Automatic annotation (TrEMBL):
<dbReference type="InterPro" id="IPR036388">
    <property type="entry name" value="WH-like_DNA-bd_sf"/>
</dbReference>
<dbReference type="Pfam" id="PF01638">
    <property type="entry name" value="HxlR"/>
</dbReference>
<dbReference type="InterPro" id="IPR002577">
    <property type="entry name" value="HTH_HxlR"/>
</dbReference>
<keyword id="KW-0805">Transcription regulation</keyword>
<feature type="domain" description="HTH hxlR-type">
    <location>
        <begin position="14"/>
        <end position="112"/>
    </location>
</feature>
<dbReference type="InterPro" id="IPR011991">
    <property type="entry name" value="ArsR-like_HTH"/>
</dbReference>
<dbReference type="InterPro" id="IPR036390">
    <property type="entry name" value="WH_DNA-bd_sf"/>
</dbReference>
<keyword id="KW-0238">DNA-binding</keyword>
<keyword id="KW-0804">Transcription</keyword>
<protein>
    <submittedName>
        <fullName>Helix-turn-helix transcriptional regulator</fullName>
    </submittedName>
</protein>
<dbReference type="GO" id="GO:0003677">
    <property type="term" value="F:DNA binding"/>
</dbReference>
Length: 223
């Protein structure tokens, strides 16, 4: 990151200080967070991070490219658009994002009423995901989330896999064959996962298939 002094230039050889040189600038780790579940176009990143302007976003992406955290590539035909994604090394920052989430959830000032985007909410679920109880049947749940912060946007699809050895959620384009399918706004789903709301009383949520699978997903990923 040219043009400014680093911790190393102050003779600080600490690896965590060096990490802050790379991802400690305002918006940097938030940009990384938005790419953890897959590459995005510039306009999509800006849309998903309320408050960031095109100038700061361009600067953060350039700096993250220079440090080897982010890479830019051109998608082949018919898309032929430029997207930004994390490098293999950059994906290691999900562990940092998870650790920060687990730490900050204990804050008395956590803004529980604030909205979250689909990817951000799913990353919170991944951070807190737990295995099912021993002997429980494996379950899969297709989750479609619509961003409550804006209107007219398509739902984003994810597939949750729940087992007695671990639970995880990934973004997906194919959701056929799941035990259950649930559609929700991010605000309503956040109320279940973070706010402690009850599925049977929730609004703006529809589901089909195995209702127990949906409840298992909530139980396995709620804070």
């Amino acid at each position: 990151m040219t043009g400014r002094r680093t911790y190393g230039s102050y003779n600080d050889g600490c690896a965590s200080a060096h990490a802050l040189d790379m991802i400690g600038e305002r918006w940097a780790l938030i940009v990384v967070r938005e790419l953890l579940l897959g590459p995005k176009r510039f306009v999509d990143i800006q849309r998903d991070i309320p408050g960031i302007g095109p100038g700061p976003l361009s600067q953060r992406l350039q700096e993250l490219e220079e440090t080897g955290v982010v890479e830019r590539r051109l998608l082949p035909e018919p898309a032929r658009v430029t997207v930004y994604g994390l490098t293999k090394w950059g994906h290691g920052l999900e562990a940092v994002n998870t650790a920060l989430s687990l730490w900050a959830v204990q804050s008395p000032r956590l803004p529980l009423e604030a909205d979250m985007g689909p990817d951000t909410l799913v990353l919170a679920m991944r951070a807190h995901a737990r295995p099912l109880a021993a002997g429980s049947p494996d379950r899969t749940v297709a989750l479609k989330l619509t961003d409550s912060r804006t209107t007219g946007r398509e739902a984003v699809a994810y597939l949750a896999t729940l087992t007695s050895t671990g639970s995880w959620i990934d973004k997906t384009a194919v959701i056929d064959g799941a035990d259950a399918e649930v559609s929700s706004t991010t605000r309503a789903w956040k109320n279940l996962i973070i706010g402690g709301a009850v599925l049977d009383r929730a609004e703006d949520i529809t589901s089909s298939g195995d209702r127990k699978a949906v409840q298992a997903l909530i139980n396995a990923t709620k804070l």
